[in-house]
Amino acid sequence: MRTISQRQAWTRAAMGAPLVVLLVLFLVYPVGQLLLLSVYGDNGFTLAQYRQLFASSVYLDVLLITLKISLATTLVCVVTGYPIAYLISVVGKERKATLLFWVLLSFWTSFLVRAFAWIVLLGRNGVINKLLLSLGIISSPASLLYNFGSVLVGMVNALLPLAVLTMLSVMENIDRNLPRAAATLGARPGMAFWKIYFPLSLPGVAAAGIMVFVTAIGFFIVPALLGGRRETMITQLIIDQVQQTMNWGFAGAIAVLLLVVVLIVFAAYDRLLGLSTMTGASAPRNAQPSRLSGPVVRTGDALLTLLGAVSDGILRLLPSRRRGRNPDQAGLGLQAFVWTMLLIISAPTILMIPLSFGSGGLNWPPQGFTLHWYETVLNSPLWTQAMLRSLLVGIGTGLLAMLIGTPAAFLLVRSDIRGKAAWLAFILSPIVVPRMIIAVGLFYVFARMGLVGSAVGLVLGHTVVAVPYVVMTMMAVLRNYDTRLDQAAQSLGARPFATLRYVTFPILGAGMMSSFLFAFATSFDELTIALFATGGLNATLPKQFWDEVTLQVSPSIAAVSTCLFVFMGLLIFVAERLRRRAAAR
Amino acid sequence: MVSSSLCIRELSKRYGDFVALAPTSLDVAKGEFLTLLGPSGSGKTTLLSLIAGLADPDEGQILIDDADVTHSPAYARDIGVVFQNYALFPHMTIEDNIAFPLKMRRVSDAEARRRTAEALETVRLPHVAKRYPRELSGGQQQRIALARCIVYRPAIILMDEPLGALDKKLRDQMQLEIKRIHRELGTTIVYVTHDQEEAMTMSDRICLMNAGAIEQLGTPQDLYFRPRSVFVADFLGESNLLSATVRGVDGEQLDIVLAEQLAASRAVGNGSRFAAGEPIKVMVRPQNLVVGEGGQLSGRLTDVMISGSLTRLYIAPETAGLPQLVAAHPTRSGSAPYEIGQRLSLGWHAADAVAIHEGKGS
Ligand SMILES: Nc1ncnc2c1ncn2[C@@H]1O[C@H](COP(=O)(O)OP(=O)(O)OP(=O)(O)O)[C@@H](O)[C@H]1O
Ligand SMILES: [Mg+2]
């Protein structure tokens, strides 16, 4: 072991401390407070809240519904996301960029905008009803909204991009020679896929599954906007408790319930697959021997063989359109499916654009052309102030997250500190803990610190949830950075600061810019924390959007949606450019 | 004994505008050991993947035992491939990797186990059966890739630099092993390597590739002693290449004049036709350049390098227009030491001077 000098130890502490302090003050403490509130009443320790929670079946029913919706969402996302990720991972560079753009655009378009678009699309006078009517499939408008189906559609739309991107990160690392090798060894395409490619992609499927499930379980935007009473999810209960009855203790108890469910899911995942597979990327290359026991593995293997044989049987029945020639040529059916899915997740937001210029309200087809809705928005101080505030808070969050996250990333990559994995898990915990729990905890703490309604509070809260992404991005960038360049600069006479100034930062610049944008976008689109921390006044854009959309569905929201959509589209374009420039280095 | 002949007709492959393989024809006989040799990027892997059915050719035909397989899928060709980067399945044990082709052919479990063990014996790694690929060294993985290929006795085996990652000793051992497998199974083998020495020692014939086309195809002796182009002469072994002009042609014998020298000398053709007055290159291998009295050229010694068994002399000829020459002879102990700057006379036997067309061979 290298001995580290006193000074080095101080430097390290200074690099890591801000992040640790931030997370302790604004994650651990608030969440801890909230959990404590659930067992401490006015007269000390009490389980009254939990008794109430389990007294009737109401809350358990909500939990069951939440689980049902989350499971269904996960299932649909993973099953439909798999072919999309697969296609993206096998096609050539240019087509990959196109496909990826649509996934990213959807990924970055606000959940609110997408959910709102579905309200319009599925409404009585929406596109779908109009289409079904004109095709003569129905004779009067069907009520497509406020049921399980509409919630599922909204949830899948919200989380499919996440599933695709997670699986893609694993699939991109599968050696494309492996299915080819299988082909030369005599495996038909179906067999090569099920016995070779699919097992190697499983870590990605599992990671996508848990990410989607855990996000879905903490969701409230979609069920609130697209669901009826019977699709109430658990986070909505927490909002009700806090906003309507100010019952912190009971909100805390529900939060505990939610947290316990999430932890059980993670524990089960760890038991079955090992949490280390969650970091995805490196998994397929050095696939761990599965933790599953012998019989399970054998059954799985037999199942895969069967699937392979069945697929090959089906393929043989198909007309022999140069079938199976090239193991990595994507079939037409696959392409058609993927484009249909991409269309389904992108279309709602895009259909919003003509509606926002129409004078006939939100009915399909749009009528006339007017800028009225845009004028309404721009003339409303509520909207303009919200916009300004969101920009401000976003930039503040971006800067703070960079300032705190970058040194921590340096520390994690460049020095061998003890318990690195544990530190990393701690830093990533804001992603794992349901956002709602953080938000309510922060609200409680902010209320006592007088930070509710202040921009500072928002920036702090948003930094907590944005900083893990900054650390992850910067760690990835730093890992690819050749430290010999620094040594070269120093050997040429540059002092440490000059090295940073002239060598390190110019090279890392693009990576830093893209992680800044990531943090900015996270804040710009953040609703959960803003829901409480803005305190009814001083709304951010998502909060203002939420307030409006829960009040009434108006065309001016379509105008705002269009603006947000275009803004995010530009942002991705810039970020992607930067990322590529960084990668090209 | 399973073995097939392979016939390639005008096969070509482009990636966008880039021609990875120009229209190429090639015949490989049953049981032949043919090596594709060539610099990096010359299209060796491309040609191999076309043969294996892993890439679609733009034009041309592939025949195996006279049956057209140009459009049949990889799994139906009965061709074994040892991939350049091994392509072992990371989620399967070594045993399962090797048994995979047998399973695909519905060989019974007992039989598969027996043949897997046998293949592991052949590559001398019987103790790694239960391990995963990532638990093996690069060289061991390469040998497993070989085992996975021979275990199902394909009629044609394609190997893409199968020994690239091995150290010298293991490499020599495996070369013998591959030759032995080739002899015993009688399989047709198309072998790719960067290493000219490996190509020379192992092959029945060598196909030297350059920039997506065949530069020369022939036995190792052919390529070494009768190179058809400057590229071949340069690529295979060390050579001295002197500019010359043809004076007269007498069957295989040529009368030539070296560079700006007036004295006539003689050379042999490389099998192609030459015309009087044609500018050519004459190749003399370093070991055929005789240092002593009364040679065709004279020059000054600029450097001496003794590399174990061989002594190399670098000589700047006094005749204008000739490049630096290198002569090699076995190192002799106790002989008079050379002095830098010393004047030497150089010569060669006419039979050791090979005439080559300038530029590309015809
Ligand atoms: N998928 C591809 N897309 C574009 N160009 C390609 C592709 N595959 C190969 N090439 C190009 O075709 C040329 C021939 O490549 P090939 O892999 O056949 O070379 P090689 O002779 O096997 O080289 P090496 O000895 O380095 O393995 C190279 O210039 C390569 O860049
Ligand atoms: Mg190659």
UniProtKB/TrEMBL annotation, chain A:
Keywords: Cell membrane, Membrane, Transmembrane, Transmembrane helix, Transport. Its main location: membrane. Gene3D superfamilies: MetI-like. PROSITE patterns: ABC_TM1. It is a multi-pass membrane protein. It is found in: Cell membrane. The keyword Transmembrane helix applies. The chain crosses the membrane at residues 20-40, 60-87, 99-124, 144-168, 204-227, 248-269, 302-318, 330-357, 391-413, 425-447, 459-478, 499-521, 556-575. Residues 63-269, 387-575 form the ABC transmembrane type-1 domain. The keyword Transmembrane helix applies. InterPro entries: MetI-like, MetI-like_sf. Belongs to the binding-protein-dependent transport system permease family. CysTW subfamily. This is ABC transporter permease subunit. It comes from Bradyrhizobium campsiandrae.
From TrEMBL, chain B:
Its EC number is 7.6.2.11. It is an enzyme of class 7 (translocase). It catalyses: ATP + H2O + polyamine-[polyamine-binding protein]Side 1 = ADP + phosphate + polyamineSide 2 + [polyamine-binding protein]Side 1. The keyword Membrane applies. One of its GO terms (molecular function) is ATP binding. It comes from the Bacteria. InterPro entries: AAA+_ATPase (IPR003593), ABC_SmlMolc_Importer (IPR050093), ABC_transporter-like_ATP-bd (IPR003439), ABC_transporter-like_CS (IPR017871), Mo/tungstate-bd_C_term_dom (IPR008995), P-loop_NTPase (IPR027417), PotA-like (IPR005893), Transp-assoc_OB_typ2 (IPR013611). Transmembrane segments: none annotated. Keywords: ATP-binding, Cell membrane, Membrane, Nucleotide-binding, Translocase, Transport. Residues 6-236 form the ABC transporter domain. SMART domains: AAA (SM00382). Gene3D superfamilies: 2.40.50.100, P-loop containing nucleotide triphosphate hydrolases. SUPFAM superfamilies: MOP-like, P-loop containing nucleoside triphosphate hydrolases. PANTHER family: SPERMIDINE/PUTRESCINE IMPORT ATP-BINDING PROTEIN POTA, SPERMIDINE_PUTRESCINE IMPORT ATP-BINDING PROTEIN POTA. Involved in beta-(1-->2)glucan export. Transmembrane domains (TMD) form a pore in the inner membrane and the ATP-binding domain (NBD) is responsible for energy generation. The complex is composed of two ATP-binding proteins (PotA), two transmembrane proteins (PotB and PotC) and a solute-binding protein (PotD). Belongs to the ABC transporter superfamily. Spermidine/putrescine importer (TC 3.A.1.11.1) family. This is Spermidine/putrescine import ATP-binding protein PotA.
